[in-house]
Specification:
270 residues; alpha+beta; eight-stranded mixed β-sheet; 8 helices; globular; disordered C terminus; Carbohydrate kinase FGGY C-terminal domain-containing protein
């Protein structure tokens, strides 16, 4: 039976076109057990940006390099009844899941003018999942996920950006998709009164202070520096004001700029 070579080539091209992202990778814990799945952060981000740009008014070469601003983060499912099965079935229950993903906020040209702006950033349809890990939301597990999945891919994206057919894309990442518990696990400030600033309990309870506004001044670089300084001694014995609520080693390299009190982003499970 004669094989139509041109038909085979056409099928191969079609197969490549519909293969949108890399294969799903199985994530293993240090003991070798399968604990979840992840895909390439770079691949899904590149695909999302390409799709957005294809829907916009044609962008000229002079507008490159573009800058895409994204927000990413992790969140645990916690014990929300919406996502848990009756009787806490250990197989069906989502109580021990941690989700990592991102959303695109804007795309700007080389002059800083937005060619795309996300007017509904809180919509679940804007969220792109990168990893879903079946682990309890605690420090050791979050530290493992950040070291194995998040930080290496984030560093690569920030340094190399994205290369599209039209030109180069620079990436600006803000870390804001967290609740307060996760933010404390990431910036190491589990004992802080606020995950965004260095205010004391007295200041936070002051109505005049709250009305006057406050700066987001809890920088991740300061957290790392403070941890390195106090880690030489037993920093848990230092007064809280001296360590600014630092209780453990930070796990993020990017500043926490927001901490949501709700698990709104988990609606992507639907």
């Amino acid at each position: 039976m004669r094989t139509d070579r041109s038909k085979l080539m056409t099928n191969e091209i079609y197969r490549r076109e519909i293969t949108l992202i890399d294969e799903i990778e199985i994530v293993h814990d240090p003991e070798g057990f399968s604990i979840g799945t992840c895909i390439s952060y770079h691949s899904i981000l590149k695909l999302t940006v390409e799709r957005l740009i294809s829907t916009l008014v044609p962008i000229s070469i002079s507008q490159y390099p573009l800058t895409v601003k994204i927000s990413d983060g992790l969140v645990g499912s916690g014990s929300h009844r919406t996502y848990n099965q009756q009787n806490n079935n250990p197989v069906l229950c989502t109580k021990c899941f941690i989700l990592f993903g991102f959303k695109i906020l804007s795309i700007a040209d080389t002059l800083g003018n937005n060619v795309f702006y996300n007017h509904s950033p809180n919509s679940s349809f804007c969220f792109r999942q990168v990893a879903l890990i079946a682990l309890k939301e605690d420090y050791n597990n979050v530290h493992f996920i950040m070291d194995k999945i998040v930080n290496p891919q984030t560093d690569q994206i920030l340094v190399n950006g994205l290369s599209l057919i039209g030109g180069h894309i620079q990436v600006d990442i803000v870390r804001s998709l967290f609740d307060t518990k996760m933010a404390g696990l990431l910036d190491g400030a589990g004992g802080a009164s606020c995950q965004l600033c260095t205010a004391s309990d007295e200041e936070i309870k002051s109505i005049d202070w709250v009305r006057s506004g406050f700066p987001i001044n809890r920088l991740i670089s300061d957290a790392w520096q403070l941890f390195d300084e106090v880690n030489e001694d037993d920093f848990f014995k230092l007064p809280s004001k001296q360590r600014l609520g630092i209780t453990h080693k930070p796990t993020s390299d990017i500043n926490i700029i927001a901490a949501s009190p709700l698990h709104a982003y988990l609606c992507v499970f639907r």
